[in-house]
Amino acid sequence: MRAHFRLESAIRFLGLGFLILNHSPIVAARVVGGRNSETQTSGRQVIKLDSDWRFSHSFENPDGISYDQLKAYILPGANAFIADPSGHHHRPSPEPNITVQYADNGFDDSNWEIVRVPHDWAIKGPFYVGSNVPVGGGMGRLPVQGVGWYRRKIAIEPADIDKEIYLDIDGAMSYAIVWLNGKLLGGWPYGYNSFRLDLTPHLIRGKDNQLAIRLDNPTKSSRWYPGGGLYRNVWLTKVDKTHVGQSGTYITTEDVSSSSATLNLAVSVENKANIKRDIYISTDVFQLNPETGKRGSKVASFPRASVSLPPGQSVDSSSSTTARNPQLWGVWTSQKPNMYVAITKLHTSASNHVIDTYETRLGIRTFDPSPEGLLVNGERVRIQGVNQHHDLGALGAAFNVRAAERQLEILRDLGVNAVRTSHNPPAPELLDLLDRKGFLVMDEIFDSWEIQKNPNDFHLIFPEWHEADLRSFIRRDRNHPSIYSWSVGNEVGEQYTGANGTAVARRLVEIAHETDPTRPVTASLNYAKPNMTFPTAFDAISLNYQGEGIRDTPPYSHLSGIKTSPLYSAFHSAFPDKLIEGSETASALSSRGTYIFPVTSEISAPINDTSGGNSTSLQVSAYELYSADYGASADKTFVGQDPYSFVAGEFVWTGFDYLGEPTPYDSARSSYSGIVDLAGFPKDRYYLYQARWRPDLRTAHILPHWTWPGRAGEVTPVHVFTSADEAELFLNGESQGRLVREQYSYRFRWDEVVYAPGELRVVTYKNGEVWAKATVETVGEAAGLRLAADQSLIRADGEDLAYVTVEVVDSKGRVVPQASDTITFDVSGAGELVATDNGNPADFTVFPSKQRKAYNGLALAIVRAKAGERGPIIIRASAAKLEIARIVIKTS
Ligand code: GAL
């Protein structure tokens, strides 16, 4: 198996034959280090189309058009990603006989809203509350449905006239259809994928090229919040007629050691000119500082390749070189994410003139997906992963680099080293961040195939689009060193359909292998068993919940639904050559800072109104013992993994809470499964995972808080999460007992503690020495507010953000753990308030609101610097009867 990937890699590399190669590094170039809205290298200009969009949304269909009606004109856009020419689509003639007034150059859009892209039309709300609403809990209770139109002018300078000009859209939710100057160009239905359209044939000189994009978001199309709109970046790419194609480089590495590595490069060059072009291709590889984007010294050059391009044709060229003493890309904490950048130039043969320059960021490393775990550069690295949906909490689906980076910073502090992009292609910039921070990535594309999970989900377009979506996704992402595995599906219905389902799986795996032979391909199994054919289709075994067992312990035995005993071992025996990982573990649920009594004595239990949950307040207890019916607490998942050293690791469901899917309370707005809440505040579970994943960190965390007016004399269990092996708890100085960690036990618990106000204190020990201590105290009445920002200086680029946390504190400055005061934010100076939140899954105050109730003592304001404005941003928080707080953020 191990040999399989290397060998395949070499063999397939030589046979690139039909592939039109692709990549995404341009995106990397845009983001890392500069976050520029424009990059220009000789021959190539990439412009971010972020401002000056006009937008209109309607819940009804305002134009009478549908994707089905126009799909014959859209499907040809898939051809570049369909390997067999006999499967190509042909644009019908004549053009469609319809009038589309919103696509017309003459249409007056002056009273449409002016928006900046990335833009999510639904995130401002309001929330749909109650039952019988158009969008229920599953999709986040926000108005995602309907038709959205975006219009924008594009200027074509005289110097652009001989260029090829593309529109690159990194994600449009969903069923995008694009017109330029009234001409239907094409589109892309799957809202999570990136796509390119060639604007050139219909551009006119001057400022008045009218771009018009129609998006159509059906209800009942998703199991989580999809967002709506042009929610990722949109780019204009201007290149010479002869240029490196879309995602047009592919770099793989072989024979990697500390003294040398072989680099293989494939470049796809397109000639859109109507004459033959003779060019040569040069590619130099440089060290790269991934944080600043600065290039270091040259480490290798590929041999120059001469290419003759007939008019209108593409040609692929491959070559290899050796890098001496490579600095390997690796996973934090034990390794460093060193990176390189390959600069490919196309030169005219006649005059040596550079007509295109193209950047590819890469890392040199080895992944060995072995049955004993994942080896990275020969070192066994345990996957300490989380699943992440694409929304950014109060910002919705609208991608923002800083918001994503903050999530990763919080996850790193927790000890996370891997992310599964559940269950769809991520923003390209997220992959750049993951590369440069040294995370592993399971890059996933589909949640459903031919069999639906929802009436309007991907299954509707699977037959016509799966190949194009899968191939374009892998071509876009395959140069990212952080991606160690592709996932082609999550819990698909085809697990249940025997040979038919297996055939679909095999076909997807085949496409993935053709497009990138260097990585294993998997799909997550929540049902398929070791003796079925379905798992045989995949290179690695990824289990959702089946690893630790589903409804297999007494607290879950009364529940209906499939019961599965823990299966890591059975899968390992059935597939002794394959890597085994938990692609979804836990689905433990909790509301940050909410504790519900009595507390179960089990290590894992389902939720109901008598245990762990409150269906009226829509809260789940943060004792971190409760899970979805089919899930498990963190403790139970650890019990499931730890006897088996071969388990490569896990991806917890989930790192952050996300919008939608608020199991177990459909009437809420956001999930309960995050280790971190929707606002980015750690739940107690954070410290449970941190103690496990960062064993050398001196952690000791006590729960619950100790301010319980009315509970005096009542049993109030105290639990401690720590990386120590012994712990002694004191209540008001009196020992409650010193406990020693037992095998497969992950928390210290004193379940008989009787509440008395005062001080709880824990002293922990490791190997007999004091390790870490923690204290919680009964606090006084709320007296004031305290502000803290994650960044004290932000860039005045209209994108960078400061996340400002508000704590409600008593007169001694201690956080009041159940405070729910209504806080009003006032932002003045060079910035603006974008959104507020508090992490409460049942808070229906709209996200842009400047008033937000504290939830268990905390609230959050997200502040953006206005583009180009100088000076400080002043943020003021006030609440009735509380001392006001103020913080100043600088801008640069
Ligand atoms: C899984 C599923 C996830 C999410 C999760 C919630 O079965 O794959 O997408 O729905 O359950 O617990």
UniProtKB/TrEMBL annotation:
<protein>
    <recommendedName>
        <fullName>Beta-galactosidase</fullName>
    </recommendedName>
</protein>
<dbReference type="Pfam" id="PF02837">
    <property type="entry name" value="Glyco_hydro_2_N"/>
</dbReference>
<dbReference type="InterPro" id="IPR006102">
    <property type="entry name" value="Ig-like_GH2"/>
</dbReference>
<dbReference type="Pfam" id="PF02836">
    <property type="entry name" value="Glyco_hydro_2_C"/>
</dbReference>
<feature type="signal peptide">
    <location>
        <begin position="1"/>
        <end position="29"/>
    </location>
</feature>
<feature type="domain" description="Glycoside hydrolase family 2 catalytic">
    <location>
        <begin position="373"/>
        <end position="529"/>
    </location>
</feature>
<feature type="domain" description="Glycoside hydrolase family 2">
    <location>
        <begin position="785"/>
        <end position="887"/>
    </location>
</feature>
<dbReference type="InterPro" id="IPR006101">
    <property type="entry name" value="Glyco_hydro_2"/>
</dbReference>
<dbReference type="InterPro" id="IPR013783">
    <property type="entry name" value="Ig-like_fold"/>
</dbReference>
<dbReference type="InterPro" id="IPR008979">
    <property type="entry name" value="Galactose-bd-like_sf"/>
</dbReference>
<dbReference type="InterPro" id="IPR006103">
    <property type="entry name" value="Glyco_hydro_2_cat"/>
</dbReference>
<feature type="domain" description="Glycoside hydrolase family 2 immunoglobulin-like beta-sandwich">
    <location>
        <begin position="249"/>
        <end position="365"/>
    </location>
</feature>
<dbReference type="InterPro" id="IPR048229">
    <property type="entry name" value="GalB-like"/>
</dbReference>
<keyword id="KW-0378">Hydrolase</keyword>
<feature type="domain" description="Glycosyl hydrolases family 2 sugar binding">
    <location>
        <begin position="113"/>
        <end position="215"/>
    </location>
</feature>
<keyword id="KW-0326">Glycosidase</keyword>
<dbReference type="InterPro" id="IPR017853">
    <property type="entry name" value="GH"/>
</dbReference>
<feature type="domain" description="DUF4982">
    <location>
        <begin position="713"/>
        <end position="772"/>
    </location>
</feature>
<dbReference type="InterPro" id="IPR006104">
    <property type="entry name" value="Glyco_hydro_2_N"/>
</dbReference>
<dbReference type="InterPro" id="IPR040605">
    <property type="entry name" value="Glyco_hydro2_dom5"/>
</dbReference>
<comment type="similarity">
    <text>Belongs to the glycosyl hydrolase 2 family.</text>
</comment>
<dbReference type="Pfam" id="PF18565">
    <property type="entry name" value="Glyco_hydro2_C5"/>
</dbReference>
<dbReference type="Pfam" id="PF16355">
    <property type="entry name" value="DUF4982"/>
</dbReference>
<dbReference type="InterPro" id="IPR032311">
    <property type="entry name" value="DUF4982"/>
</dbReference>
<dbReference type="Pfam" id="PF00703">
    <property type="entry name" value="Glyco_hydro_2"/>
</dbReference>
<feature type="region of interest" description="Disordered">
    <location>
        <begin position="292"/>
        <end position="324"/>
    </location>
</feature>
<dbReference type="GO" id="GO:0005975">
    <property type="term" value="P:carbohydrate metabolic process"/>
</dbReference>
<dbReference type="GO" id="GO:0004553">
    <property type="term" value="F:hydrolase activity, hydrolyzing O-glycosyl compounds"/>
</dbReference>
<feature type="compositionally biased region" description="Polar residues">
    <location>
        <begin position="314"/>
        <end position="324"/>
    </location>
</feature>
<dbReference type="InterPro" id="IPR036156">
    <property type="entry name" value="Beta-gal/glucu_dom_sf"/>
</dbReference>
<dbReference type="InterPro" id="IPR051913">
    <property type="entry name" value="GH2_Domain-Containing"/>
</dbReference>
<keyword id="KW-0732">Signal</keyword>
